[in-house]
Specification:
Number of helices of chain A: 11
Largest sheet of chain A: none
Number of helices of chain B: 14
Number of strands of chain B: 8
Order of helices and strands of chain A: HHHHHHHHHHH
Order of helices and strands of chain B: HEEEHEHEHEHHHHHHEHEHHH
Distance between the termini of chain A: 45 Å
Strand content of chain B: 15-25%
Largest interface: A-B, 27 and 28 residues
Oligomer: heterodimer
Structural class of chain B: alpha/beta
Number of strands of chain A: 0
Chain lengths: 302, 283
C-alpha cells in the first residue's frame, strides 16, 4: 500500500517545541550530525514521536545497543563480499575535496543505518504486540553523547531539487520505496549528481540479483533478533498508539517500509564504500563509541 | 570556469577535528587569497588563472564556509579563522605567504599580519572589514537564531542573491551569483552561514587597532569606491594606520571589486606581487 503524501514528515529545520527538543535528544543519543528521516516521518504523526522515542531512549544510549548495531554492520559487510562491486568512483570524475565529502558522508550513513535498522525492527515488533527487550536491572554502560568529532555534517539536497533529472529520480524513488520522502543517503549523494546517477546505474543489476535479495532478508532477520535482545523493554502498547494516531495500520506500514529500506541502505552503502575500502575493513564501526564519562565532581552524576 | 569545475580543483587538509578545502595551483612565491561572507573560494576565480601563471596560488574556504567543514558546533569568528589558517599553513608545510583578503577574509588577514606576523610576507586588503566597519545590518539579521526557523534554505538564498547584487556596480550573471551562494543552498549550508553570521564581532578588529602600526610588510589596499557596505573611508584609515600602506581607489567598483574591475585589480595585484614599489602603483 502506497502511503506517501498522507502525512508530511517534519524536517529538522521546521521542528519546534517538543519535536525540536526530541530531535536534539535523538542527535545526541544516536551520535549523529542530523536527525534521521525515520524520526522526521514519525514526527509527522504528532504525539507518536514522543511515545516511540520514550520507548526507545533507554536502549539507545547503551553500549549493548551500540554493539548490536556493530554486529549488524559487520554482517552487512560480510554479506556483500561475494557480490559484484559497483566501482562507481572509477567512472566519475571527482576532485579530492568532493571525494573527501562523499566518503565522509558514506561513513556517516555506514555508522547510522545499522543503528536505525535495529530501532525500526524493535518498533515494528513492538507494534505487532511482541515482547521486545530484556528486563535489565543492573546499571548498564552508556556511550558518550553527541556526534563524533570526525563525523561530517549531514547535508541533504532539497526534497524538491531544481535539477529536473534529480526531481524525476526523487519521484521515482518515492514511488518504489513507498516512503514519504527520499532516503537520506540519496539526497546526500544528489549533491554530486553525476556520482548518484552512475551509482544507481551500477547498483541496479546487483540489487535485482538473488544474492542481494537473500542478504536483505538476512539483515532484516538479524536486526529483528538483535532488537529482541535489547537490554530494556521496548513497550509501545497498541492502545496508547491508538490514543495518539488515527490509523495504527499506517504507522505499522510506514515502519515496515523503513525496515526494508534500511536493510537495503546498509548493503548499498557498504557496496559503494568498496571503491575505497576492503569489505573486511567495513565490518568495523567508522566511529567507535567511547564510554560516557562519569562525572565524579561533588554533587555530579553520570 | 563554473563553480563545479572550481570545486573539482579543491583539495583537503585536516586540521584537528576540522577540515579545510582549498585550491593549490601554480608555482612560485605563494599567495593566499581569503574570501569573505557570504561567498567562498570561488569568489577569486576571475583572478585565479592569471595569478597562477607566476605564483603558487592557494585559496582556502574558511571553516564553516564553502566546502570546508560546516558542522554545527565550532567558533567561526575571524580570530578562530586566523588560527585555523595558521594551523593549515603548518599542515601543508608553508611558512610564509602573501595574503590577499576581501571582506571578512581581509579581517582574517589583518589578524594574521598583527598576531602571526611571521606568516605574512605581503598584505593586500580589498574592501575589507576593519575597525567597526562591520557587521552590516543584513548579516546581523542573518545571524539571529530565529532565522533558522523563519527562512528555508531556498528563501534564504533568494534573499541573499538580492542582497549580493548591491555589492556590484556591474551586473553579475545569475550563474555567478548562484555559484557564489551554492554551498549555502542546502539546509546544512544555510545553518552554517547563520552560524558564520553569529560569529561576526567588531571587537576582533578593534582589539588589533593598536597593533596596525607594527605591521612592517608591504601593504596594498585596493578599494572599490562605490562600496556602501564597507565605505572607502575605512580603507583610508587603514592606509593611515599601517606604515607604508598605500590605498588605491578603484572607480566604478563596489564591494566585489575583483569582479567589477577584474582587469584593474589584476594589474595592480600582479604588480604588487611582482615587488613593484607600492608608491609606483598609485601613479
Amino acid at each position: 500500500m502506497a502511503i506517501f503524501n498522507k502525512t508530511k514528515p517534519i524536517p529538522e529545520q521546521e521542528s519546534a517545541g517538543e519535536t525540536e527538543r526530541i530531535y536534539h535528544e535523538i542527535r545526541q543519543t544516536l551520535r549523529s550530525t542530523g536527525v534521521p528521516q525515520l524520526f522526521c516521518s514519525w514526527a509527522g504523526y504528532g504525539k507518536f514521536l514522543p511515545l516511540v522515542w520514550s520507548a526507545l531512549r533507554p536502549n539507545a544510549e547503551t553500549r549493548l545497543y551500540e554493539e548490536a548495531s556493530d554486529r549488524l554492520r559487520a554482517e552487512g559487510a560480510r554479506l556483500i563480499k561475494p557480490m559484484e562491486k559497483p566501482d562507481v568512483s572509477a567512472h566519475v570524475r571527482l576532485g579530492e575535496s568532493q571525494t573527501y565529502h562523499l566518503r565522509a558522508s558514506l561513513d556517516l550513513y555506514h555508522y547510522l543505518y545499522p543503528k536505525l535498522l535495529v530501532l525500526t525492527s524493535a518498533v515494528q515488533r513492538a507494534l505487532a504486540g511482541e515482547r521486545i527487550g530484556k528486563e535489565e536491572n543492573r546499571e548498564l554502560e552508556r556511550i558518550e553523547r553527541g556526534a563524533p568529532a570526525g563525523m561530517i555534517a549531514m547535508e541533504l539536497a532539497p526534497e524538491e531539487p531544481q535539477d529536473p533529472r534529480l526531481r524525476a529520480l526523487f519521484e521515482e524513488i518515492k514511488k518504489t520505496s513507498k516512503l514519504p520522502s527520499v532516503v537520506m543517503e540519496i539526497r546526500t549523494l544528489a549533491l554530486w549528481p553525476d556520482y548518484l546517477f552512475e551509482a544507481r546505474k551500477r547498483l541496479m543489476p546487483i540489487i535485482v540479483g538473488p544474492e542481494y535479495k537473500q542478504a536483505e532478508e538476512r539483515l532484516k532477520q538479524t536486526a529483528r533478533k538483535e532488537a529482541g535482545n535489547l537490554p530494556y523493554p521496548v513497550s509501545i502498547p497498541r492502545e496508547k498508539v491508538k490514543g495518539v494516531v488515527s490509523d495504527v495500520g499506517e504507522i505499522t506500514t510506514l515502519t515496515s517500509d523503513f525496515e526494508r529500506a534500511y536493510a537495503r541502505c546498509i548493503l548499498n552503502i557498504a557496496l559503494l564504500q568498496c571503491d575505497w575500502r576492503d569489505p573486511d575493513a567495513l565490518a568495523s564501526s567508522p566511529f567507535p563509541a567511547p564510554s560516557r564519562r562519569q562525572v565524579v565532581a561533588a554533587g555530579g552524576m553520570a | 570556469m563554473n563553480w563545479r569545475e572550481y570545486q573539482a580543483k579543491q583539495r583537503v587538509a585536516e586540521i584537528g577535528d576540522r577540515f579545510i578545502s582549498y585550491v593549490d595551483e601554480g608555482s612560485g612565491d605563494p599567495v593566499i587569497l581569503l574570501h569573505g561572507m557570504p561567498t567562498w573560494g570561488f569568489l577569486w576565480h576571475p583572478l585565479f588563472s592569471s595569478l597562477s601563471k607566476s605564483h603558487r596560488v592557494l585559496i582556502p574556504d574558511l571553516i564553516g564556509y564553502g566546502y570546508s567543514d560546516k558542522r554545527d558546533g565550532f567558533d567561526r569568528s575571524i580570530a578562530k579563522q586566523a588560527e585555523a589558517i595558521h594551523v593549515w599553513m603548518e599542515k601543508i608545510g608553508m611558512e610564509r605567504a602573501t595574503f590577499v583578503g576581501h571582506d571578512i577574509g581581509g579581517g582574517v588577514a589583518l589578524r594574521l599580519a598583527t598576531l602571526f606576523p611571521g606568516r605574512v610576507d605581503r598584505l593586500c586588503l580589498m574592501n575589507s572589514v576593519c575597525y567597526d566597519s562591520w557587521p552590516v545590518e543584513a548579516i546581523l539579521q542573518l545571524g539571529h537564531p530565529e532565522t533558522r526557523r523563519r527562512l528555508s534554505a531556498r528563501t534564504a538564498i533568494l534573499l541573499m542573491k538580492q542582497g549580493l547584487k548591491m555589492g556590484f556596480t556591474s551586473s553579475p550573471s545569475n550563474d555567478l551569483l548562484d555559484g557564489l551562494l551554492i554551498p549555502y543552498a542546502t539546509e546544512t549550508g544555510k545553518l552554517s552561514l547563520i552560524r558564520d553570521a553569529v560569529a561576526v564581532d567588531t571587537n576582533q578588529t578593534m582589539e588589533i587597532v593598536p597593533l596596525l602600526q607594527r605591521i612592517t610588510v608591504p601593504t596594498l589596499i585596493l578599494w572599490g569606491e562605490d562600496d556602501r557596505l564597507q565605505p572607502v573611508d575605512y580603507g583610508e584609515r587603514l592606509a593611515w594606520d599601517i606604515p607604508g600602506a598605500r590605498l588605491i581607489r578603484i572607480e566604478q567598483a563596489c564591494h566585489f571589486v575583483m569582479i567589477d574591475q577584474p582587469g584593474e585589480v589584476e594589474r595592480d595585484l600582479i604588480a604588487f606581487l611582482g615587488g613593484a614599489k607600492v608608491e609606483r602603483l598609485a601613479a
